[in-house]
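Morning run. Coffee first, then this:
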Amino acid sequence: MLRLKVTDRERITNQQSLLTLVLSIVAGMLAISLIFLINGVNPLFAFAKIFSGSFGSKFGIRETITKAIPLILIGVGLAVAYRGKFWNIGAEGQLLAGAIFGTWVGLNWGPHLPSYIIVPLMFLFGFIGGAFWGVIPAILKIRFSVNEVISTLMLNYICAEILTYLIVGPWKGKTKYGYPYTDDLPESAILSVFSGTRIHYPTLALGIIAVIILGIVIYKTKFGYEVRVIGENIDAARYAGINFFKTTVIIMIISGGMAGLAGAGEVAGVHHYLSYPASISSGYGFTAIIVAWLAKLNPFFVILSGLFFAGILVGGDAIQISLGLPAATVQVFNGTLLVFLIMGDYFLKHKVTLKWAKD
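And here it is:
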């Protein structure tokens, strides 16, 4: 009878890695095309609408860059976490935690401090908020063996409920006519944008700087080497004397902190007040998971990957209007691509053969 045999590949070349990535994307696009066909939509027309809506006009490009900002920040943080085999699914909650901390600083200290002080403070506290929310599942995993996929995912909902409580309760704005929002941030706490756009360039600059720094950290420092060793073989890392507790906590400080920066940036750069979780984040924490995978967990590639998926988010809005497709179409698109990217990564690292074996 036929039996399936799976073995680890001893050597993976850059050419194999690139080819696998391309084939994964093509296979994912074919699967998405089938979904469009089932819904009676010409897939070529749908793809053309998506990418023309995001990259085919000045407005589309501006909106794509705006949505790429949080994806780049969160994606580079997730790339670091996944390199160390810590499966952080909680970037959405870490983003919201950063938004909460950053908003508190802006509302309470903003009226009394100049912009050049309050803006860095908002980003600092946004980072602290996201890092705090990220360290919780790290400690739960190390000390109590709690699965990080479950703990990070559940913490998303807890943070969302905390935020909702704040905006309908103690932080409800006196100037919002009873609506569940905080008061507007003072002028000193609002980020500058490029003229005629929503691109808040201080946060964009932070994202680019984070990509460069974390890329250097992962590939050129002792800590980055330890992260990569843990990702390849945890037992070998322990045998080599790597402090698993310290490294994992630092990984999640970085990963959660990047998401927290994105949250502070969204409040200060786009919304200017705290509102419902779904308004603060368009699912950025989940989309950034695919951003990190498409970048092959390489921080330097996160910018291109973030722009690509930001384009899908913007183009997804276009096909909802022009083709009458449901809002969940973008999530289906992203989820399908993620499945094929993970499958491609599996087959890249493992050799699967069929052998005829006698009973």
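The beta strands are 2-8, 350-356. Good start to the day.
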